[in-house]
Design a protein that fits this description.
The complex is a heterotrimer of chains A (243), B (265) and C (619). Chain A has 2 helices and 13 strands, in the order H-E-E-E-H-E-E-E-E-E-E-E-E-E-E. Chain C folds into 2 domains: 78 residues, no CATH class; 478 residues, Cytochrome c oxidase-like, subunit I domain (Cytochrome C Oxidase, Chain A, Up-down Bundle), CATH 1.20.210. In chain C, helix 9 packs antiparallel against helix 11 and helix 11 runs antiparallel to helix 12. The chains are: A alpha+beta (243), B alpha+beta (265), C mainly alpha (619). The structure holds protoporphyrin IX containing FE and copper (II) ion (3 copies). The site of one copper (II) ion has 5 residues of chain A, from loops.
């Protein structure tokens, strides 16, 4: 009888150890995947300023952020940005923006890529910014031709009762290949091309998590050019935390 | 074990006698009681829970969808009750032990039972089929009737944003606002991979395919916010391919159209 | 591992010393496979612009197939045919060696033609795949524990869902026909081996080569498409998709070989006197299942070949702009996809039907109804595929006809219920572990079936299609019914396959953890679906908070239960109580042979005079 109780005890202890081991293995996989899911870059915090602005009779604090769009690593490097690991077109210095809540946020984008046509012309329109406009190299515009686009900054999220809706779409004008001052970066181009500077402002609501992505087909040559870079995080898509 | 075993009687009983005998059996009565219990569980599920779980009914289609789910739950309740009642009864008869127990009655089949069972399940299937076909017809007839007065919305899915063009109003937006009580026709298309247009509270759904317009229609019947989701996995931000909108009074809708720079039609 | 050893054979142990076959095993297979794969990779890659997706796809796909081919060459899969071709067929001694005679544990790592070895190989392989798929499921549920959870990125989440799905589907297709169909089925019909023992080994090792290919998806960036791999998303997808495509093509070869083999075995090798109405019901169910796979799977293979061509040669089969169509893919996929769910379900159900009479000690109720049920399901299942496409916009006119065929399936399914309930009725079930599975099956299949009827009705599908409700529905059938059936089969045949009894207490604990966790998990998912949460979403709005949290708790409970199950299997296999020849008092032939089952199963082939369900006091 003693041996059988002993056996049973040994069985139970063995089982318990096994279950714990199993849970540990599964958790380890979880830790690994979580580790691989870290933000590709450090988040970029918008710079808050002490100024305020009044819109529709309400006062908003101001904040700003500066980003670049670089066609490749070399261009990024010339502009002092150590780019994400693949030699792909990308936003920098970060694809994760952290913005203050209930604030007038101004984003400045320095953009250096060429471009062609959008898959869906809607994204040639400026949507969701203050005044419905953006500013390209000093000129306010409400849209650009759908075949003159290099990338878009399209911000959206889940409609949920616990966070305010936020939708912003800004098309970025392409750098034309026939523009002398503004030719595409080539190996010996140095830094004498200017690209375009786009600024736009929008109002954030309460705290929430949003995502943004590019709507210009800048992926590899697969179906509708939405492969490769368009399917990975950290280049042409990212998130926006309103805190 | 054999107190209700009519096989062992001396005179062969008539079918009627056999039937009443079966009904009087302890097994049948207990299984029946259990069956009633399970039936009630499913009835309550259909009566109380589906309407609670499913979102606010905001269109004609959503109404018929929910009605169908509730009705099917009622109809299937007695079937579930029967199966689970029988199963639960035999479960209560279980025995333990380390060696195979004594054999039970050697019933190999029961012709009438097989026939009755098949007929009953066939009727259930038939009911479901007829119901579905009728709904399909009602739906398509309504569509034909409404086509003339309907509001047309051209829906485009792109990886990972929905946009809505109102051709008669000359506007294009990223939120889906609709006037109440006016039929609406959605022409759905994709700019890239497959998506599925799903205005949740309106209870309709159709895939967005590239270069193939698909059509779906409904009539909003209640004011309030709606969610538009994508119900077909479309890559990286499929989960975020959502947007909102509102069912509005006609006046509010017209004002909104004007504010968007469109004209009322 | 004494239990795995072959008994003291009376024959001299074959040792064809000079033959190459004695030198080959899994290790040599892996080495040759790796050489083939990496050799091809580096060789092809050198001449290509590897920044172009089409070239990357080409190189990866070819390398993956070369791995498979190399492995099979390295393990000696082609030695037999090759020797036959050059006119020097294998000698009797070599054949005995191939059958693993007297080789102990090492035969499990060789190209072994003994059907019992193949059965064990499948069993271990399937358990490994279920373990991987289950781990992925835990990751999915962890990410969905609360809205806005950032446990994994959407890229990884999409891969988790897709690879969980395909890993589970592959595992479930072979979960019963692999281990039991190979180990038990030939003994059940009184055969000495399968009809084509070498093909039998081939089917397993081909499947084996698909496993590393599938795993490589993780190192190539994952897949964004889910297990359905819908085009054109699959054409757009990154290099990980190649792994999916290659896996399916390789797997389809394996199932074709296995299907042909099992069908041929049952048709031609039954014992004397085993007329069709005396065949054990598991054999019928398993055979209908594999026979159904034979016409069904090639369309999946074809759709994958087309995907591969679109991805490598820009053939645009699925690109509407150039005359292709995404609907074409959906059709090809579901023409396989719906029969496939029954390929998964039938063997599990058939195993349960084998179990019920034994533990209730009554004959199977209406054997004919059971066969009609299986045949009806198999027949109708090839006519219903477009019920997955009600909402695709493809010819809405045909939704009606497909709704009719789909709902007709509830009639043969009803027969299945009738057979099991009729057998239970007026019996006093001997409540052993396999029998618990029968009850779990009845409950789960009922819920899976009834919700399936909702989904098959177009108006309800309007709302439910593509939602979590669908996911909950098919888990009730695939996991709640088919996997439960297969696990009950494992508990039932474990003594015959390992010579030891499965630890009962651990089995009970595992059973209750898994089944209760299962109800909680998928009740939560039914609610989330009814509330309007789409399936395959990495994130969801806060209104689905509670249903998702409930689901995740249920999933963890299942996880623990499954680990206990694994413990029970491993422990019992090594140290369990020695099983008697016929612990359940069953009447099928496999319970007449001793353990370890001799190389050719029977000393003297049995002669059959009745079906194996002669239980009960006679009338
Ligand atoms: C531990 C048990 C399991 C858990 C916790 C689990 C959980 C899940 C979850 C959460 C999803 C994703 C739901 C969605 O967003 O659509 C899923 C998908 C899926 N599961 Fe499971 N599952 C389990 C077992 C199984 C089994 C045994 C099968 C057998 C075939 C299976 C087959 C599938 C399939 C085919 C999908 C769909 C994948 C896709 O959408 O592409 N699962 N499972
Ligand atoms: Cu871009
Ligand atoms: Cu989508
Ligand atoms: Cu189906």
């Amino acid at each position: 009888m003693t041996t059988s109780t002993e056996n049973r005890k040994r069985f139970s202890i063995g089982g318990l150890v096994f279950v714990l081991l199993g849970v540990a293995v599964v958790s380890l996989v979880g830790v690994l995947l979580h580790h691989l899911s870290a933000d590709p870059q450090k988040p970029l915090y918008a710079t808050k300023s002490s100024q305020t602005i009044s819109i529709d009779g309400k006062d908003y604090a101001k904040a700003s952020a500066v980003l670049g769009v670089y066609p490749d690593k070399a261009t990024a490097a010339e502009h002092g940005y150590k780019s994400n690991n693949k030699d792909w077109v990308q936003y920098g210095p970060s694809t994760h923006l952290v913005l203050p809540a209930h604030t007038y946020v101004t984003v400045t984008l320095h953009v250096y890529d060429s471009g062609e046509a959008l898959n869906h012309a809607y994204f040639g329109k400026v949507v969701g910014t203050v005044g419905g406009t953006m500013n390209i190299d000093g000129t306010d515009v409400t849209n650009i031709p759908y075949d003159q686009v290099q990338h878009t900054f399209t911000l959206h999220g889940l409609p949920t009762s616990t966070q305010d809706p936020l939708f912003v779409n800004v098309p970025l004008p392409r750098v034309a290949t026939d523009d002398k001052d503004n030719f595409l970066p080539t190996k010996d181009a140095g830094t004498n091309y200017k690209g375009h500077t786009v600024t736009f402002s929008f109002l954030t609501g309460g705290a929430g998590e949003y995502v943004w992505n590019c709507e210009y087909p800048c992926g590899d040559g697969t179906y509708r050019k939405f492969g490769a870079v368009m399917g990975q995080l950290g280049y042409m898509s990212g998130k926006v935390t309103v805190a | 074990m054999s107190n209700h075993d009519h096989d062992e009687e001396q005179l062969p009983p008539t079918p009627g006698e056999r039937f009443t005998k079966v009904l009087k059996g302890k097994d049948v009565q207990q299984a029946f009681a259990l069956g009633i219990f399970f039936t009630l569980v499913f009835v309550v599920l259909g009566w109380k829970f589906y309407p609670k779980w499913m979102p606010t009914i905001m269109s004609t289609d959503m109404k018929s969808n929910e009605a169908l789910m509730v009705a099917f739950t009622y109809i299937s309740a007695p079937i579930c009750g029967l199966v689970l009642g029988m199963a639960a009864y035999t479960f209560l008869q279980r025995q333990r032990g380390d060696t195979p127990p004594e054999d039970g009655p050697g019933i190999r089949t029961n012709g009438p039972m097989v026939i009755v069972w098949t007929v009953v399940t066939s009727l259930f299937a038939l009911l479901a089929i007829i119901w579905g076909i009728v709904e399909l017809n009602v739906g398509s007839e309504a569509a034909a009737a409404e086509a003339k007065t309907a509001l047309v919305v051209n829906v485009t899915g792109s990886q990972w944003v929905w946009t809505f063009e109102y051709p008669a109003q000359g506007i294009e937006t990223n939120e889906l606002n609709l006037p109440i009580d006016r039929p609406v026709i959605f022409n759905v298309i994709s700019a890239d991979v497959n998506h599925s247009f799903w205005p949740v509270q309106l209870g309709v759904k159709v895939d967005a395919n590239r270069l193939e317009t698909t059509v779906v229609h409904t009539t909003p019947t209640r004011l309030g916010p709606i969610d538009v989701k994508c119900a077909e996995l479309c890559g990286l931000y499929h989960a975020y391919m959502e947007t909102g909108g509102n069912i509005m009074t006609t006046t509010n809708f017209d004002n909104w159209v004007t504010a968007q720079g469109g004209h009322n039609a | 591992m004494t239990t795995l050893d072959h008994p003291t054979s009376t024959r001299p142990i074959p040792n064809p010393e000079k033959s190459l076959i004695t030198k080959l095993h899994m290790g040599t297979g892996m080495v040759v496979g790796a050489i083939f794969a990496f050799g091809t990779y580096f060789w092809l890659r050198s001449g290509q612009d590897m920044t172009v997706a089409h070239n990357v796809n080409k190189v990866l796909l070819i390398s993956m197939f070369m791995w498979s081919l190399g492995f099979l060459i390295g393990i000696g899969a082609f030695i037999g045919p090759f020797r036959w071709l050059i006119g020097k067929d294998l000698t009797a001694e070599e054949q005995l060696y191939l059958a693993g005679d007297g080789q102990g544990v090492s035969r499990y790592f060789r190209y072994c033609t003994d059907h019992k070895v193949v059965g064990i190989q499948y069993l271990v392989g399937v358990m490994a795949m279920l373990g991987v798929g289950g781990t992925l499921a835990m990751m999915i549920r962890t990410n969905l524990i609360s809205p806005g959870s950032k446990f994994v990125t959407p890229v990884i989440y999409n891969s988790l869902v897709g690879l969980h799905g395909i890993t589970m589907i592959v595992a479930m297709i072979v979960v019963a026909t692999g281990p039991f169909g190979n180990f038990i089925l030939p003994i059940m019909i009184g055969a000495r081996d399968m009809a084509f023992p070498r093909l039998n080994a081939l089917s397993w090792w081909v499947l084996f080569t698909a496993i590393p290919v599938l795993c490589s998806a993780w190192f190539l960036g994952g897949i964004p498409t889910g297990w359905t791999a819908y085009a054109p998303l699959s054409v757009q997808a990154g290099p990980g998709m190649n792994a999916f495509v290659a896996t399916i093509i390789i797997f389809a070869v394996s199932t074709a070989v296995a299907g042909a083999n099992i069908t041929a075995t049952v048709v031609t090798m039954r014992a004397k006197g085993m007329k069709w109405n005396r065949v054990p019901i598991f054999v019928i169910g398993a055979t209908i299942s594999v026979a159904l796979a034979i016409p069904a799977f090639p369309t999946f293979m074809v759709s994958m070949i087309m995907t591969a061509l679109d991805r490598t040669a820009n053939t645009t089969y699925f690109d509407a702009q150039f005359g292709g169509s995404g609907w074409l893919y959906a059709h090809l996929f579901w023409i396989m996809g719906h029969p496939e769910v029954y390929v998964i379900l039938l063997p599990g159900v058939a195993a349960l039907m084998e179990i019920v009479p034994v533990f209730v000690r009554k004959p199977l109720f209406s054997y004919n109804a059971a066969i009609m049920g299986f045949a009806g399901i198999a027949g109708l299942s090839v006519l219903v595929w477009a019920h997955h496409m009600y909402m695709s916009g493809w010819l809405p006119m045909l939704n009606g006809p497909f709704m009719i065929t789909t709902e007709m399936i509830s009639i043969p399914t009803g027969l299945i219920f009738l057979v099991i309930l009729g057998t239970l009725w007026r019996g006093k079930p001997w409540m052993k572990l396999p029998m618990l599975g029968v009850y779990a099956f009845l409950w789960n299949m009922l819920i899976g079936g009834v919700t399936g009827v909702y989904l098959s009705d177009v108006p309800a599908d309007n709302y439910l299609h593509g939602s979590m409700y669908v996911t909950a529905h098919f888990h009730y059938t695939l996991m709640g019914a088919a996997l439960t059936g297969a696990l009950a089969g494992l508990a039932y045949w474990f003594p015959k396959m390992t010579g030891r009894m499965l630890h009962e207490r651990a089995g009970y604990i595992s059973f209750w953890f898994v089944q209760i966790g299962f109800q909680v998990l998928f009740l939560g998912m039914f609610i989330a679906g009814a509330e309007g949460q789409p399936r395959r979403v990495a994130d969801f709005s806060a209104m689905y908070k509670y249903s998702n949290m409930i689901s995740t708790m249920g999933a963890y409970t299942i996880g623990i239960g499954m680990i206990v199950m694994l413990w029970a299997v491993i422990h019992s296999w090594r140290k369990g109580a020695i099983a008697p020849i016929n612990p359940w008092g069953a009447k099928t032939l496999e319970w007449t042979v001793p353990f370890p089952v001799p190389l050719e199963n029977f000393d003297e082939l049995p002669v059959i005079t009745s079906d194996p369900y002669g239980y009960g006091r006679s009338k």
